[in-house]
Automatic annotation (TrEMBL):
Top-level taxonomy: Eukaryota, Viridiplantae, Streptophyta, Embryophyta, Tracheophyta
Reaction(s) the record says it catalyses: [protein]-peptidylproline (omega=180) = [protein]-peptidylproline (omega=0)
Superkingdom of the source species: Eukaryota
Residue span, PPIase cyclophilin-type domain: 79-247
Family affiliation: Belongs to the cyclophilin-type PPIase family.
Species assigned in the record: Deinandra increscens subsp. villosa
The protein, known as: Peptidyl-prolyl cis-trans isomerase
Its EC number(s): 5.2.1.8
Length: 287
């Protein structure tokens, strides 16, 4: 299989390739500064979103950590134990929004526990353990969850439902913000498998309504920052692996101290403004 970024116009492809060249140039200034925020790496952009109308620009204010009132202990909580460059860096605890998107939340939960065994489509374990974040961009998001290829190839993976590789979209009332997780689509709507997106942006409205948000990191936001720190437009500069994963019991939930106020030290990046449409593209998996 070859890489596919869907069909671009020739002029659009040339323009995006120039942006990628600018990003990888050693003379390029700090990409996190507001004046350079229009440069979007093409390895995260494919056709799919609705262009946004011009409107009031958002600020770069980072949303506060989740408060106890914002967290629903009736929802499943799962964990991902992360290593970077072979060294353990800590655990992310994630609340899954089963009260809003039950099918999507259950898919992720079961892929964390590995309870479904071997996938009938891929013949591989339906388990995130040992998989990597194969795509990490400091300015956008990380993508992981390829259970088929383990080391990561966008578009690989399988859902838990046994009726094919993918399942249909659910309506999501949640929007993207830093620390949210959403499904990475394979080329089109209703193509949710096992690959997922970990958002780094304070807001990412071009993904809202296209990618189903199913969870949020409620403990371990400093791990999100560590993952982001090893990203680059060409891919992770160190391997980021899910060493272990699973679901927390009710007793374990009661021992989790949230929120993580004050732990994340990295300064916030400017949120995406309403007049930035990313050339009408959204973050998706691709072959």
């Amino acid at each position: 299989m070859v890489s596919r970024f869907t069909s671009h116009t020739l002029s659009g492809e040339i323009r995006q390739q120039k942006r990628l060249h600018d990003l990888t140039s050693p003379e390029n200034p700090d990409l996190t500064s507001p004046e350079n925020s229009s440069h979007i790496p093409t390895n995260f952009l494919v056709k799919g979103s609705v262009a946004r109308k011009k409107g009031k620009k958002t600020t770069g204010h980072r949303p506060p950590p989740p408060s106890a009132e914002m967290i629903n202990k009736k929802n499943p909580w799962v964990y991902l134990d992360i290593s970077i460059g072979g060294n353990p860096v800590g655990r992310m605890v994630i609340e899954l929004f089963s009260d809003v998107v039950p099918k999507t939340a259950e898919n992720f939960r079961a892929l964390c526990t590995g309870e479904k065994g071997i996938g009938p489509v891929t013949g591989k374990p339906l388990h995130y353990k040992g998989t990597v974040f194969y795509k990490i961009d400091q300015r956008l998001a990380a993508e992981g969850g390829d259970i088929e290829n383990r080391k990561g190839r966008a578009g690989g993976g399988e859902c838990i439902y046994g009726n094919g590789r993918y399942f249909e979209d659910e309506n999501s009332e949640r929007t993207h913000e830093r620390g949210t997780l959403s499904m990475a689509l394979f080329d089109s709507r209703n193509s949710n498998g096992s690959t997922f997106i970990l958002c780094f942006r304070d807001e990412f409205r071009d993904l809202d309504g296209c990618h189903v948000v199913f969870g949020k990191v409620i403990k371990g936001m400093e791990i999100v920052t560590k993952i982001e720190d090893v990203g680059s437009p060409k891919g992770p500069i160190q391997e980021v692996k899910i060493e272990n994963c699973g679901e927390l019991s009710e007793d374990q939930k009661s021992n989790v101290m949230v929120p993580d106020e004050g732990k994340e030290k990295k300064p916030g990046k400017r949120a995406i403004s309403s007049d930035e449409s990313f050339d009408g593209r959204v973050l998706m998996s691709h072959l």
